[in-house]
Amino acid sequence: MRILAAALFCTVFAALPARITAGTFPEPSVVQTPKHWTMDVVYDQPRQITLKLPGEKEPKRFWYIILTLTNNSPLTDADFYPSCELMTDTFRIVPAGKGVRGEVFRQIKLKHQGGYPFLERLDYVDNKILQGADNAVDVAIIWPDFDVKAKEVTLFIAGMSNETKAINHPTKKNASGNPEKIYLRKTLALKYAIGGDPKLRASAALRFKQKSWVMR
């Protein structure tokens, strides 16, 4: 159900007219109201991993990032319904988990078992994150390889806040003739540069450029 919801969100966003997606979205509140909360998040450096999976003729490359989420909100348990996408500067959008088999996560977990012994795959994290540092959750978010021509990528990670805002769709109307509402969520945006010759993809690394919170 979580994957289906994320896919639906991606489809709706991709279908929005250019005049909406070109940067006219509202921004998150500078000071949160008492009814809003945002989890504390610590993120590791994104990495790549190349694996030859059972049944595949050629090795495949994947990219992943590990987040540590802590619920320091007033809630004893905070809802967690994530939606995570990678967007390139060549305008390709890649949903997290698309085409990612379980073997990929198992290899990542094995690689990081010293630092993240309780690492969880995004698809299987509980929908409630309990309050306090003792209940912090380590999550791996994984994407298949993206466009080799891309020079920048942005990771959009939603679900760590309950702040939402509604805007009117510029063209679609509901049964009453009023504009349909589009609901946006407070989303973490992490921007990275990727350099090097596409032929040397195996040695490519993402270089951090910017962190921001956006409504998406």
What count of helical segments does DSSP give? 3
Helix-strand makeup class: mainly beta
- Pick out the low-confidence regions: 1-23
Q: Proportion of β residues? A: 35-45%
Q: What's the helix-strand series?
A: HHEEEEEEHEEEEEEE
* Gyration radius, in Å: 18 Å
How far apart are the termini?
A: 20 Å
Average predicted confidence as pLDDT: 88
State the domain count. Answer: 1
State the total count of DSSP E strands: 13
Summed up, what is this model?
The chain has 216 residues and is mainly beta. 12% of the residues lie in helices and 41% in strands. The chain has one domain (2-215).
Polypeptide structure, described:
This protein is mostly beta strands. The chain has one domain (2-215). Helix content is 12%, strand content 41%. The chain has helices at residues 2-14, 18-21, 102-111; strands at 40-43, 47-51, 60-70, 77-79, 83-88, 93-95, 120-121, 128-130, 137-144, 152-158, 164-173, 179-194, 206-215. The strands form three sheets. Strands 5, 6, 10, 11, 12 and 13 form a six-stranded antiparallel β-sheet that branches.
SSE layout and pairings?
Blueprint: H1 2-14, H2 18-21, E1 40-43, E2 47-51, E3 60-70, E4 77-79, E5 83-88, E6 93-95, H3 102-111, E7 120-121, E8 128-130, E9 137-144, E10 152-158, E11 164-173, E12 179-194, E13 206-215
Parallel strand pairs: 7-9
Antiparallel strand pairs: 1-3, 2-3, 3-9, 4-8, 5-6, 5-10, 10-12, 11-12, 12-13
